[in-house]
Structure of Alpha/beta hydrolase:
Amino acid sequence: MNSMIHRESSSTILWLSGWSMPDAVFDRLRLLLPEYQHLSVDYREAETPEKMLLQTETAVNYLRARALHGPLLIAGWSLGALLALRLAAKGFADGLVLFAATARFTRSKEEIDRGWGDAYVRKMMAGVVQDRLAVESKFRQLMFTEAEWEANLGESLPPIGSWTTPALIAGLQILRSEEILSQLQNINCPVLLVHGTEDQICPYGAGLELMAQLSKAKLFPIHACGHVPFLGREEHIADELRRWWHEQ
């Protein structure tokens, strides 16, 4: 677990990054929220899905064992958002901040407005073994709209290659298998959903689904935005997060 603590705070945020991404992608956003304690889970070298899941639970248990004063927020993006929902369903979170979230990534043809087909994810897993750079590059191309690419937003991402090949496969296996839809009724904490309306990876329909099924959810749509709704918009997101949490 990585630690990035700025000063005494009444709240702690545990950050969970997306597939193939180091948590450095959150650095600017965290710097704009100095009143919070910031910690993150580094699962870039997880060898199996089970170890990846265990790492997130171990981190939460560590924070609870430290008897931190004040609430624990879990912030997750994409795969990290799915992991955050899993933790919240077990009662581990006082609040959730979810970027490009879904309660189930793989979907049937009838639900293609909310996720991807399982066959595509299996193809990615096979591709990672053969040419991981090609798979990661193609995945990044899908993260942004054409206008976002023209604005060079993609250049703000950390370099490709920070995850091990086993971790990439483990993350894809979790995206294939984890299903939190049936557990959403167990999540009673406040949830801030930040979702790009043009997201090609976790479609906006998945955010609408979460909004409809979570009792204390607030949806903050980012229009004309792809899969990375916080990148390049950190000041706006930090203000919204702060305002939302102060209301709770």
Confidence is low (pLDDT under 50) at residues 3-8. The beta strands are 2-5, 12-16, 37-40, 72-77, 95-99, 191-196, 217-222. The helical segments are 27-31, 49-65, 79-89, 118-141, 146-150, 165-177, 204-213, 234-247. The chain has one domain: 2-247.
